[in-house]
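Q: I have 149 residues here and want to know how they pack in 3D. Can you give me a structure?
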Amino acid sequence: MALIDLVVEKIVKIPLESKDKPDVLRELVQILKDAGEIDDFDAVLKAVQDREDKQSTGLQDSIAVPHCKTTVVSSLKLAIGIAPQGIDFDSIDGKPSKLFFLLLASPDLSGPHVEALAEIAKLAGSKAFCKALVNADNAREVVELMKGE
């Protein structure tokens, strides 16, 4: 399954209400819970926080990709959050993150997990595309941009 197939309005939130890293993680996991994509909020949040505690997933150029493998999911799950104001996420470049891609995978889904991370990295390579996402007005616009519609 391609990452693009996971992009639907119910897993996109713009703007994020969070002001700090722990709240961003909670808010992204809540998006999946509200969308009916996960059942066990606490287990998923703990798995994401444990992974984040090992090394920040805040990349450069305003992008963060919190991700983890957990037995709580059986298929790849994605949540997208956009914070136009930027949130400190301990990024590599020290700048606030604006685009958040939460990725969850079952431990036996290494291939799709790595492929999805690679797809996000490829998207992140386009500064114009990232700027368009940050400036999107709503979830539908984000979906349309991601799907190239």
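Q: Anything worth noting?
A: The first strand starts at residue 12 and ends at 13. The longest helix spans residues 110-124.
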